[in-house]
Every structure is written in structure tokens, then in C-alpha cells.
Amino acid sequence: MRLLLVEDDLQVNQGLTRTLSHEGYAVESVMCLTDARSFVANDEVDLLILDLGLPDGDGLSLLSDIKKRRKPLPVLILTARDSLDDKIKGLDLGADDYLVKPFEVDELLARLRVLGRRVTGVVSSTLECGPIVMDLAAHDVQINAQALTLPRKEYMLLKALMENQGRVQSKEQLEQKLYQWGEELGSNAIEVHIHHLRKKLPDGTIKTLRGIGYVLNRVQES
Asked: What is the value of pTM for the model shown?
């Protein structure tokens, strides 16, 4: 899932970028409204964390651009503005959530999981497909109750497939979910990750539809 972080405090920006990347988000971070508007205009953002006090304007002004998108964009405002009036204004202008600094990272991640479920239509933080169980909160995967350790990209790939069970995901869709904007990737990167992931899952879990994409199959528990 592609997440845009708009935060002008360099330390907060870098710390959150590392944390969110570790949690399986493809993160792009910017420090001003101008850059944020460019990413929103490309219509490739799935989630947005938005600071309000930015060097080139008020983050609230970005919400009007977001309303013009072809698809909904969940927005979490992350700001030092803690008055009730500020919270009401932000939510009334279209933000989905409002978190005041200083904040607990675990709370931010929990709120993002809620917003992420709105994007994918998943109603729980636990995803299941046959014997495979993924706990998004714990960043944990189990097969037949046995822990499975996955590299970050393979975890993100499995998450994308499990969130879209029964729906084919094209190579391009998976690339958008796994890689940050401008991140260098080989022409067969997705195929390589699929190959390695298949070795760790029950036979037949990932089905290839040649020329179309990949879909997750529910296999029987052993």
C-alpha cells in the first residue's frame, strides 16, 4: 500500500518513514505542500499522513485537491494543533482521522490499519486464507499455526494478495503496492518475489494467469 507522508520536521519525517516502511508500507515522504500536491495529482496514493504547519502553506488546503481525485484517499492529520476547533475544522474539510503531536507510534499504526481497511474493504486486522493467517498488527504470518518468517517485500506481496483474495492482481498493481515512487526495480522483480514466496506457501496458493496477473487460492489445511 502506497503511503504519502507530508511532514516538515526532518527528524519526525525520517523516523516515521523508517517505521512505516518496516510495517510494510511503500512510503514516499515530502516536506512541503508543493511536493505533496504533485503526488496527489498523480492519483497513485492509497493513504496520506498530513502535517498542517508546512513551510509553504497550511496542510488543510491540500484537502480540496484530494476531493478531486478519481478514488477516495483516506487522510490522517498529524499535527501539533490540539484545539477542538482545529480538530473539527480538519475533519469537516474531509480528513478521516486527527492525531495530535506528541503521539505514540503504536496508536498511529493502529489508526492507519483502520484507514487501510477502508481502502481494501477488509474488516479485520487478521487476514486468513486456508491455513495461512496474517496478523497485520503483530506483523506476523503463520501457516498451520507455525510461524513463517518473510523478508519485507515478500510480506508486502503476500499482504497485497491476501487483501484481494479472489481478485486478480496485475504485475503493475503489485509493483505499486511494493515499491516506492522512483525506487529502482528489475523488470522481473515481481516474478522473483512470487517465485520465492511460492516455495514457502502450500502448493497451489498463488495462481498465475499468464498475461494478466496473480490471484490467491484458498488451499485446504493440512
From this structure: 0.72
